[in-house]
Each structure stands twice: as structure tokens, then as C-alpha cells.
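As a warm-up, study this chain.
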Amino acid sequence: MKKFLFFLSIFTLFSCEKDEYIPLDSEVQLTNENLNKSTSSPSDLDIKLLNKLDSVTDGIGPSFFILPNSDDYANIPQDPLNPITHKKVELGKLLFHETATGGNPKTASNLATYSCASCHHAAAGFSAGTRQGIGEGGIGFGVKGEGRVFNNIIPVADIDIQPIRSPTILNVAYQDVMLWNGQFGGTGTNAGTEANWTNIPENFIGFQGVEVQALKGQDVHRLLVNKQFAKDFDYKKMFNKAFPDVPKEERYTRETAGLAIAAYERTVLPNQSPWQRWLKGDYNALTNKEKKGARMFFGKAKCFRCHTGPALNDKNFYALGMGDFDDSTEAVVPDDNGFPNVKRGRGGFTKKPRDYYKFKTPTIYNLVDNGVFGHGGTFTSVRDIVEYKLNGIPENNEVPQEQLHRLFTNVQELTENQINNLVLFIENGLRDPNLMRYVPDQINSGNCFPNSDPTSQVDLGCS
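Now compare it with the structure written out below.
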């Protein structure tokens, strides 16, 4: 590890796309070339929306919200310790979906049946598609991940289940810390939290959150990448091309795999959504109702106060009183002493009471594909969560009233029609229909993916 870190410091001194995804009937496959062409003139409604964007960005306007193309590495936020390269992205794309990485299971029969993409797949907008993500010990997939359930013949204690809803990897390039509580990441937002990094040595190296999660996730989720893996599944050449300056004895490792996965994740951007097309001058990309919804988003509904910038998220944490997991048929609360800290959100990490029950602002692109919403997965439609935020009545009685963010209880009343338009904008305007471009046609092992248990193989048609 020390040699690897030495390589990183030297390297930075010298360096300044099978799960089923079902598009809406009206959607077409798009290319970056035609996305960048203006195909219409602005209407009065467009001009009003453009003026609104000018007012909320101090005159910057649409460019403030535009995402770069996924191969425009120079304009994608990245970790200086892990510069994005095409070869890293190619390798990371495969490793992210490769079920052969599931090489350290607690139950031998689960070997090579799960991957990073088990809980973050394109069919669900790179979330899990279920209330609770399941890695090892899950079976099935369904159509959009909604069919993944616990394998009842395995003890619950041996199943890799998440204590909080699996967030999307869309737009993670615009986060410097990761997880709902932001504990992963050793720069920026986490400056001053060093006392709480005891079990996160990667933070001390100075990696940003995306890289830290890609490294820690391999340990937590029982993945295994090493020289034998690279040899057995024909990844050695790809590692060689992605990390030519890393000594060979350190080239096929958890560390290089994590950096490749993180580089790939940073390129997974919903830049073909109708909203992004509209921002680039295609004024026919949004319907009139969606444009009216966008005006609500950036106006009366005040959504933009937290959901801003290219990723439509800020780097802050808020208490909105949403519910947590409970023991039910849809979720299992882990039987350990860590769950109280999970429920406290940012405060569970910082140990500061003022941070209790605060959770990171999520991106809301492709939200409709997720299927479940809120950090505890307690909402089942976009409209439900919009109305919850507008009504300002907390569902979690554990959250003190004084802890709730002022915007949660300070939103002007919207009419039914205005809410309908707002929901249409979020569901349709912010939905990239072509996320399958980030999924490989096949993986080197030849396995089924994102899961390869027998039930998933049937669901995915690759048995």
C-alpha cells in the first residue's frame, strides 16, 4: 500500500456499457452530436424560464446547469489523485458490472453472483430499484431490480443488506463526499472531521468520496479483485493499459480496481435528459407543462434552493423528518449497534447534535426510475415525496421540530395543477432515457450481470 501511495503522489505531479432498461414509448436514442444542435426557437414560455434561470444564478443562466459530455474528461469534476482516463473508464465500467468480483462471499454458493451493479444498475437509474439494496444473499432481479429478494435459506446475518436506501451513482462527480451521511471523502466538506476517520484510512490519504467509496465498498460488499482475478478473467491487459506507471506487483489490486471504478462512476452523467437538451437550445425537448413545472422548480416551490448546479444537488445536509428502515417484508434493520448512528445521518458520523437527522441532498435525475424515495425508502412515487416536502409535516417523530430545515415548513402553497406540472418536470424532464450506454454488452467472465444467481439468470434471460 505504501508503494501504491508513493506512485499516486508521483503520478499526480506529472499529470496536471446487461440489465433490461425500458424507455418510455416516446423516447428515441440520441447522440451527443444532435443533442448539441439547437432545433427550435424559444417561445414566450421558454423566455420566461430562461429569465428565471438568469435570476437564480445571478445572470449566469442555462450554462450553470449544463452537464458535460461523458467523454469530456477535462470538464468532469475529478479527484486530483485519480485523473480520469479512457482506459480507466473502460476497465471500471466492466469491473463495476462484473459478477466475478463477488469473490469473498460468506456463503460459498454465492460465489460470483453479485457485483457493484447489484445495488446500482441502469434499470433503476443506477439505484437498486428496491427499498433495501441486497448484494450477496439476494436472489432475483425482476425487470428493474424490483424482484430482488432475500434468499431465505441463508441466515439474515450473512446477507449483505444496506441499512439505508442505496443512492444512485448518477452525478457522483459533483459530490466530494459519499454516503447519505457524507463520511467517505478526505477533502472539502469533510475538513475538520478527521477525529471520526478511525475506520476510514483512505480519507487520510486525501481521496475524495467517490474514490473512497469505490475502495471501501469492495471490503464491505465482499468483492475481491487481485492478480489471480485479473489473470483468470482476462483483465490483466486492461489493468496494464489503465495503470502503466504502477509497479506490476501493485497493479492488479483492490486499490487500482477502486480507482478505475471511481473514474467510470464519474462519467455516468444524465446528460441526454430532456432538461439538458433544453438547456443546450433544443426548446422542443420539454413539453409546455414540463416547462411550467420547471418554472415552479426554480420559483415558487423553491426546489432549487437545495437542488442546484449541473447535478441539481448541493453539498449540504438537511433534516426533513423522513422515515428510516423498519423490520418489514420490504426491509430488515441490521441487528447490530450501528443502526442508531445510521438514523442520525450526518450527526451519526460527526457526533455533533446539530447534525442529527440531517442527510445529504441527493441528485434527482432519473428519480422516477428508482421506484422508492427518501433515505429510508418510505415513499413510492415522485408525487408523494413532492407533496411531503410541500406540506412540511414530518413522518419521523424522532426528529425534533427545531431540527427541521426551515424550507421544509416554509414553502408557499401550490395549486393542484402546479404540483402536476412540477411532478411532470421531475419525472420526464429530468429522466435520461439512454442510461444503457453506460452498461457493457458483456463482461469478461461471461457471467450474467448485474446478478448471476440462478433466479436472476432466468429474470435477465442469460441462464
